[in-house]
């Protein structure tokens, strides 16, 4: 069996048919494989601790973590943009208006326009988005392109990303708990800390290509 | 597997050279030990690691057992989501498909996400031959490409280079490929990364065609998954108008839920992180978000041959985490280049000879590039029994013959006959004892195997003769 070479010749046998035939011949004598056991843990964390764990793991991967409530959110967003020295901020189409209510007039708002070129986006300083979900055990934000998050590229090209997470509703403990809550066919970006590389002597450097600064606001509503 | 390192010497020759390079050994030792220790800590955080490992193994085994069914389901899902699926039996066909797709866009350059599959088929070289420039955008791959070098590790391909060497490569070569390195570039990792950021951003922002691989493909939904750290992957996957993904057929998993296993085990096994900074998932094309054209090239290139080997097929479970490289005492000393393939280390030693066959000198030597210590099996997140496959492949290499193996086979055949004929054996033993002063201390033959082994000293008298003389009566008494 080990050196079996299956060759199918004749008309109408393209690579698709040839590959499928080779696969079928290769496994014809293989034992049936059972359904995988899924006796691994659903979570490694107690429900009461998930928000703190999220904050801890985000910070461990060098995201800047802030906490506030619904009333304090607009002022916090305004302050973070001002401290950053942002002159322009990208706004996804469905971002809740109150989130930007306290942004100073000096910071120009730019609506995400599908016609804008990547080069134009490259001139923008900051972007503010929501998220679909956050995973505590891995310190991960999941973006799915919903109106408060926008196209994938707007959280990629600007160098400063502020992401708002509603706690505790949007926080799950673990990857297995996240999967059923994510729509797989959406365009998904999972973000765990800012862009990073360890390619040079394994020294971690933030931001080779993606945003170099990731700020996460955990907001209780 | 084409596009590999033609004319590479066999492993022992290449390894001998590498072992003499002190800088290389220093870089490798530092890197492998650092990642290995971090990985152990990351894995220890999950109390159910062994169960996740077993689940990963079972998911992959089930997928491989019904690979035809899952590939057809994947094809249907991707097509329904607006993608186009191509099937490539070998490297040449895959390269031709990609080149034709690029040409159809009218473009002459592509940006690339680091991909083992496209390295395996030598895509960059094939595109260059068609007048298409392929730019690697992963920092390490950029270092390798600018240095006209070869990758030496699956995860950190420029692990053999230190910061001083990288600075020189950037300073001397960047200008020829695009934006030059800034004047007075120092060798701090932050400054080097910044130089790469500026150099590559220029390419990302104008790119019309992106080429990637994928870590996983979900049959049920048609979703492709790329895990990465830098964001160059996100750039290549979302900014161009056309995206072409070249993916080995073994990368399919049946269901969305299966990802929950691998997204826990892959990052911890490879970069020793709880999760890699960026994971991109896309299903066909998405309205006004990302590429408008998506092509998936499903690559065989020796994988169905590997699947046909009942011991060796487990190598197709590999999720390319590189944990086995970092624990391997042989890799640590020999370095990645000695393996003569894009897949170095223990996994390369079993994967390359299966994908390419064992006819070439380098491929026939790879199953021996191991001490069989088993550390690779211990860390493998999908429980590939690499030592088992190595031994199995050694048998295959020995069976096919070759210089040393012909002599070995002749000796074994002769020994077998002697052992089957007790009278001959006894006579031979007596003759050997009488002539023992004349025996050489090493076995005859010119190979490395005989050089490294001493023959045992023969006793003055064969054991069976001694037994007959001293215990002969007992034997009669016992009636045996």
UniProtKB/TrEMBL annotation, chain A:
Span of domain LUD: 119-219
Pfam family, one: LUD_dom
Listed InterPro entries: FTHF_cligase-like_sf (IPR024185), LUD_dom (IPR003741), NagB/RpiA_transferase-like (IPR037171)
Transmembrane regions listed in the UniProt entry: none
Record-given protein name: Lactate utilization protein C
Organism field: Streptomyces paludis
Classification lineage: Bacteria, Bacillati, Actinomycetota, Actinomycetes, Kitasatosporales
TrEMBL record, chain B:
Cross-referenced SUPFAM superfamilies: 4Fe-4S ferredoxins, NagB/RpiA/CoA transferase-like
4Fe-4S ferredoxin-type domain: residues covered: 358-389
GO terms for MF: 4 iron, 4 sulfur cluster binding; metal ion binding
Keywords: 4Fe-4S, Electron transport, Iron, Iron-sulfur, Metal-binding, Repeat, Transport
GO terms of biological process kind: lactate metabolic process
Compositionally biased region (Basic and acidic residues): 451-480
Chain intervals for the UniProt region annotation (Disordered): 430-480
Name of the protein described by the UniProt record: Iron-sulfur cluster-binding protein
Organism listed in the record: Streptomyces paludis
